[in-house]
Amino acid sequence: MNSRTRVIVLAITAPVVVFAIVGGLLGTVLAREDTYQHLKIFDDVVSLISSNYVEKVEIDKVMRGAMNGLVDSLDPDSAFLAPDEVKQAESATPPPAGDLGIELTRQYYLRILAARDNSPAAKAGLRTGDYVRAINDVPTRDMSVWQGMRALRGPVGSKVTLTIFRGNAADPHVVSMTREALSPLDISGRIATPGVGYVRVPAIGAKTVEQMKSQIAEVSKNGATKLVIDMRRTATGTYDQGIALARLFVAKGTLAVRETKGAPTRDTIAAGPGDGSIALPAVLLVDNGTSGAAELFAAALHGNQRADLIGEHTIGRAGVQKLVKLPGGSGLWLTTVRYLTPAGTPLHEKGLEPTVAVEGPEVEFGQPAPAGDSALDKAIEHVQTAQPAAAARVARATPVWLAEKKAA
Description:
six-stranded mixed beta sheet, alpha+beta, 19 strands
C-alpha cells in the first residue's frame, strides 16, 4: 500500500477507532481487541484492492463506499456525509421552500415512508412502500435518506422526476411533479357513525394539541362518545410534540423512555398533573407510514392501555440523529438517541404490532384506491364493542376544557 493510500486509510479509520473505543454508536459496542482485528482486515482489503484490481483504483471513491457501507449497516437514518454535506447540515440557511410532501426511509433503495395529504406526491398517487429508484435520473441505490430528502427539495415551481417501483411490478413508473410550498395541515373531524367521532391527524406540529382539543369538543357536541383517531401516513413532527399530544389522553403512567448513548441511565417521561384531559374511549388507526412523533404518540396510548391499535405494523422510526465531524471535513450523521415504549421495549427499528391487523389495499399504479376503508370499518366496530367496564371507567370523568366548551 503506498503512502497516500495509508494516509487516507488512517484519516478515515482513526475516528472510527476512537468512536468505537469511547462508546460511539456502531450497532453494538465492540471489544477493543475485536475492533483492531476488524480494522486490520480492512487495511488488508484496501491493500489487496489497490495492488490487484484490474483497473487503477480511485482510493477516495473506495473509502467513501466503505464508509457508506459501514454507516448503512446501522439504521436507515444514519449516514456518512461528505464535506459539502457537512456544511449543509451545519448551515443555518433553511432548505428551499419547494417540496413534494414525501418522507423517506431506506430499504436497499430509498422507499416512501409516507406521502403527505394533499401534497404533490399524494396527488400523483405515490403511496407508502413505493420504491424510489432514481431522483432526476440519479440512482438512489447508494443514496442515504439524508441525501434523498434534500434532493427532493428545490425552488417552488421547479420540476422533479422520480422513478418509482411498486410491489412486484417489473416496469418502473416515471413520475414528474412540481414542487410546492406546503401549508401546515390541520386536524379534521367528523361523525363516522352515530356515537363515534373520527379525527384525522395528517401531521403533528405546534398547533396539534389545541386542534385536537377543538376537534374532539366538536364531535362530542355532535354526539360522539367514542373516538377513532387516524394516524395513518402521519410522519412529521418532533418527538416532544408527539409526547405533548399523548399527554391529552394519558392521565397517569410512563409515556415513553428515552435512551441516550453514553448516558448512565434511561430517561423516563411520565404523565403529570393536568394530563389526561381527553377521557373518551379511543382506538388508533396506524400503518407502515405511522412514524416518528405519531409512533411515539401511539406507543404511549397503547402502552398505557388507553387505546388499541388497528391496521398495520408501524415502521419503527424513533431515533434522534446528530452530526459527528471527522478530520478532513466529512462527518457521520448518527442516531445517538432512541425512544422505547412505556414498557421499556425497543421502538426504533422495531415498531408497534397492531392489536387488530388489517392490511392496506393493494393499488395498481395509476389506479384509484378502493372506495371503502376496511381498516376504518374495523376500527369503528372495535371501539363500539369495547369492554363496557373499561369504557365506563374512561368516560366517567368529563374533562374541564370540554365542560367549559359545552357550557359556552
